[in-house]
Amino acid sequence: MSLWKRISSHADCEARMAAYYDEKGLFDLRLCLAAWIEDRIMSEQITPNSAEQLERVALKFNEDLQQKLLSTRTASDQALKYRVVELCTQIQRTSALELYTHLRGGLQKELQLATEKSVATPGPSMPLSPYNMNNPSGYMDPSEMMAVQPAVGAGLGVIHNALGTAKVELFEIEHQILQYFNEFSACGNSLKMLVQNYSYMLNSTGSPNPEEAFKCLMTEKAAIVTALCRSYICYEPLQELIISELNNWRRQQALAGNGAPFQESTLDQIQRCFELLESFIGHLLAAVKETLRVHLVNDEPELNNLLERVRGAQKNLVCAAFIVDKQPPQVMKTNTRFAASVRWLIGSQLGIHNNPPTIECIIMSENQANRFVTRGTQMDSTLAGQSSGEIQNCSSTMEYQQNNHIFSASFRNMQLKKIKRAEKKGTESVMDEKFALFFYATTTVNDYQIRVWTLSLPVVVIVHGNQEPQSWATITWDNAFADIVREPFAITDRVTWAQLSVALNTKFGSSTQRALTRDNLDFLFEKLQRDERSDYITWNQFCKEPLPDRNFTFWEWFFAIMKLTKDHLMGMWKASCIMGFINKAKAQDDLMRSATGIGTFLLRFSDSELGGVTIAYVNEYGSVTMLSPWTARDFQILNLADRIRDLHMLRWLHPSDTNGVPQERDRAFGEFYSARDGTNEPKAGYVRSTLHVQVRNAIGDNGSIIGTPQHPIPSPPQDSSMSMGNICETTNNSTKSNACKLPPHPKHKTKNTCSTQQPINCIYYDSNYV
């Protein structure tokens, strides 16, 4: 019997574990792949003993999990296939490390519950994982914390056992730091006594038994060295945990660049852990130095090695604590003001806040950042000369806020004036080139120099607005799929659809305030997929290669729709009035199957027109008619809801959700209609004009209703061969005309002809001309 079956046989245990897995939305995954997860994790024969090793194990598990889900997706059970797609989407919302450790922690909790219920399950033991998740708590000053006796449960005894048994919250790590610090502090009296005895031995001239006194000192010192080594062994994994947690926060910050939810305030609690660790390692370093002063033998390799390790740990901690907490805009336009800020998570530790350093900022190219990070380039006074551009207002002095212990520097008025670009190869463009802001400072603490630096998330520099769409493709891909700890700015060139679908859904949902449906995502996958045998999508498919039979890429098409929706269709999209991502064939099929019949319509995004939306409806003959697309320029003249109001053949809005029901048109769109009550009287001598949309019952060769040009023109079409003319209404109290019978506008010398390629079904009057 599997472990999960044993747990589920006890209702209280099952409910407890369901709540645990639901914290990360993993309960359905645990149920669907119960046996596989147990076998895969519990059969591991290694215990990750470093953050890097744990991350490698987690990434491998994530890859295996995705392959397992993809192989399940080929099942004949259609419901199961859809469920697997949802699971793929769900796991992509969680980082590989977070997902893996949460599942591991869950299995360990299940083993404990099984033991408590006397249903212990034989099998291989499970390596334990030193990882943690977040939970905010109140602030306490480190000096106060050190005096508090931690209330830690018995399960938090040894560090690897403690941090691997289950999800460990940050506040628990705080208590763990305190516990080990207090244990270390206990040897303080012993060290003080050792120093006193050593001083007495040096100053005494007539000791009755010097050899015995020397032996006693050696024994005392050996015991202290052992205690110091033990304290460092306890300290080291805690530091790795907190740095890993900070990297996880930075990863969430990158995802937030794509619009994902982000608990920014978690950084305050991470800082508290950094402050505690800095206090711990500072006291430990002082104790090691003090012990070395008790010079009893010529060579003390163990103590000297410990000194170097403690110094290295303190340096790594202080440097890791220097981060960009407020990122600059990731698509950065030259000569445009922007802001950013950096934060040093050591707070008031080390006393640096008493003489705060000045932070400098330059912009680095990808190659420069790579050389600096991977080759360990020394930071010196010539660093400013390595900038790839010229930034105004690029320095700021750090400030310490006593009330919240935040030690930061704000750059409120920076401006990139010039940029130096690398030589392009092949199909590379300036929108593919990544830069980063490089923040650095040098300060002195206790007569030794500290140099710290940090990089912002990648930025793409543009000089014109038309470069923005492709630039956002570069940034969106990097934010979604890059590792925080990497060589700048290494990124995979292919991802699974499950990964990409989450990124697209996050980006579109955050921009338009409504997520995509499963049908929407299936349609996007059809757009992107080139090889039916693979679920992988490449960078070139995403934003470089034109879509089949089109002269634009997938990203250009997707971005244009996202911008159109945000700028002109937001309310209707949020209200689920727009189906959006659905192909023409499925739209026709859905409408023909609709129970409401003639007059039923839906709104879909155009496949052929960038940033276009079209209406498909069941006409009076029971077939489906599709209007030519409208774009942003059309909606600047007359909004979509008012256009729908004017088309009286549209009666019932087809539901955008399979579980929805058709809605009467005015009920669905009424709140979005503009007022046409004539409250604003025209000036004397003028006749009021209004815009209206009308469609003639004529079908073009491609099955779409053909309209008039997008640009407003004052004269009606003259070519009788056109399938649809400009039908307009002018309202002047009792006067109403259904067709324009005006002479040509004096400003237009040439005859107006309709275009079958640029549709819009409305016209406006020039009030002066009327």
UniProtKB/TrEMBL annotation:
CDD domains: SH2_STAT_family, STAT_CCD, STAT_DBD. It is found in: Cytoplasm; Nucleus. Keywords: Activator, Cytoplasm, DNA-binding, Nucleus, Phosphoprotein, SH2 domain, Transcription, Transcription regulation. Gene3D superfamilies: EF-hand, SH2 domain, STAT transcription factor, all-alpha domain, STAT transcription factor, DNA-binding domain, STAT transcription factor, N-terminal domain. It comes from the Eukaryota. The keyword DNA-binding applies. PROSITE patterns: SH2. InterPro entries: p53-like_TF_DNA-bd_sf (IPR008967), SH2 (IPR000980), SH2_dom_sf (IPR036860), STAT (IPR001217), STAT_linker (IPR048988), STAT_N_sf (IPR036535), STAT_TF_alpha (IPR013800), STAT_TF_CC (IPR015988). Residues 557-637 form the SH2 domain. One of its GO terms (molecular function) is DNA-binding transcription activator activity, RNA polymerase II-specific. The keyword Transferase does not apply. GO terms for biological process: cell surface receptor signaling pathway. GO terms for cellular component: cytoplasm; nucleus. PANTHER family: SIGNAL TRANSDUCER AND ACTIVATOR OF TRANSCRIPTION (PTHR11801). Forms a homodimer or a heterodimer with a related family member. Belongs to the transcription factor STAT family. This is Signal transducer and activator of transcription.
